[in-house]
Amino acid sequence: MSEYNAMELMITVAARELKNGDSCGVGTGAPCAAAMLAQKTHAPDLLILFEAGGLSPELPEMPISVGDSRTFYKAAMAGSMSDAMEYCARGFVDYTFLGGAQIDRYGNLNSSVIGGHAKPKVRLPGSGGANDFASFCWKMMVMTPQDEKRFVEKLDFLTTPGWLDGGDSRERSGLPLGTGPYKIITNMAVMDFEPVSKRMRVISIHPGNEFSDVQRKCGFELLRAHKIVETKPPEPKELTILREQVDPYKVILGR
To answer: What topology is assigned to 6-246 in CATH?
Structure first.
């Protein structure tokens, strides 16, 4: 039971960030698994919100999309996307999980295009609700594999705002004070953002990795926290619940 893969580690680390009684806007896949794991361990009163409008469902198993009927199962409310975005804009949502093809040192995300916008090499799905979630939820988190093509010096397109140009640029843009990127959780480390510059910095490194490994898989210079700790591995109880109750059909765990 002590063995685990990178996805299981990322999910358990993310789940520990979610506090009982808080609210979290999630998508399908790993973010949903993290929220479900938190509910089944230390945060039974975590309120889960889906972009399509499912509010606080009792998820029977992993949904396959944000509009899957399972995201409305025994929900407190079967609303709409407009409702979900309204909750965010009114400051009701504490956390959100997002992702993208590219992320920069300030936590800005690109999920639109790779290459020039007019004639891109790859056209990606776009924002969906990501821009709204990142703009209005109090704490944005990202779960993503780490490599230098994903962690880039400059985005090809800015789809979703992080700390924009750093410093107080997010506040000056008119986005709500107190919102913004919170944690980046990868298969190698956990990063937060230095309070003044808003640059990404390493605060925890997963077992088997060194800071030099994390930096090598990043396309920009990472800051280092004054004290970098080793990430706590998944506990047997967390793995059992994750494998047997959250994702028994191995939709995302890959085991």
So the answer is: Glutaconate Coenzyme A-transferase (3.40.1080)
